[in-house]
Amino acid sequence: MSNRKLYWWKSIVSMGLILGSMPIVHLVARVLKDNYDGTQLLGAGMAVGFVGMMMVVVGVFVKGQTRQTLLGLIGGMFYWTGWVDFLFMYYAHRWRTHAEIDPTTGEVLSRPEYLLLPATFGLWAMVMLLYIFCSRNACNFLNWWQTLFLGKNKRLIVARPMTRHTSIVTFMEINTMLWTCYLLLMNLYDPQLFGRESPVTFGVAFGALLSAPYVFRKQLHLQSWGANIRMGTATVIVFWIAVEAFNRTGIIGKLIAHPSEYPWHWMVMVIELCFLAGKIVKDARAKKEKK
């Protein structure tokens, strides 16, 4: 891998494209949320989701992997915003689901629609079951689970990939990644499970921060625009986990201001840094052996 060309310009443009398209979708959502409510908001959300779905479907028929990827990516964002985010928001408000409020400051910690997301765990597990047992693919996350569950029988049980449409693949990738990350974060924030200041929550966030450069390193080796954009999506979302968790918990400032009050957090940090150092040394030795 060390002898392969690094596509810095292509990777940076891909990241910029993803980071630029996300605020546009959020801006559309914000305008609709500020100007509509009740059934009007439901109708607006259904329209946004439908536009996203149609973009993905059109992507199946157009020529060129880059165009297919872009239609799947942007269509997936509109789909998530309209048919997931807006629908959860509508029903949370309709049935008067309460937001999570900080008892001390009165600040809203989590909006009602996000508090309902963990209830979709069973549906998420069903989708993962399909991918793990019925689809050969290039996703490192799914390949790790397939190796764990299937072992030597992996090639026998997962014999072939599904029919591949780049637009659909991109659409499913961004939505399943968003879904997985929201489930992960909301369960970590839940005080009955872990809590915002839990060492586990900190460990996941810090691990995501350390993992993002590794995902980006893999992205640098991808020559195809389509593949580079899709890997860029993974890079952004993994990094977003760290940014979101650190921003939501404010744990970094607390660690600096009161280090003695968080011994487990420092221990988690040291363990993860040692693991990273071991990984770097192992990779360096593997490269030497190949030479």
From TrEMBL:
<feature type="transmembrane region" description="Helical">
    <location>
        <begin position="121"/>
        <end position="145"/>
    </location>
</feature>
<feature type="transmembrane region" description="Helical">
    <location>
        <begin position="41"/>
        <end position="62"/>
    </location>
</feature>
<keyword id="KW-1133">Transmembrane helix</keyword>
<feature type="transmembrane region" description="Helical">
    <location>
        <begin position="7"/>
        <end position="29"/>
    </location>
</feature>
<keyword id="KW-0812">Transmembrane</keyword>
<feature type="transmembrane region" description="Helical">
    <location>
        <begin position="166"/>
        <end position="186"/>
    </location>
</feature>
<keyword id="KW-0472">Membrane</keyword>
<feature type="transmembrane region" description="Helical">
    <location>
        <begin position="198"/>
        <end position="216"/>
    </location>
</feature>
<feature type="transmembrane region" description="Helical">
    <location>
        <begin position="263"/>
        <end position="281"/>
    </location>
</feature>
<feature type="transmembrane region" description="Helical">
    <location>
        <begin position="69"/>
        <end position="92"/>
    </location>
</feature>
<protein>
    <submittedName>
        <fullName>Membrane protein</fullName>
    </submittedName>
</protein>
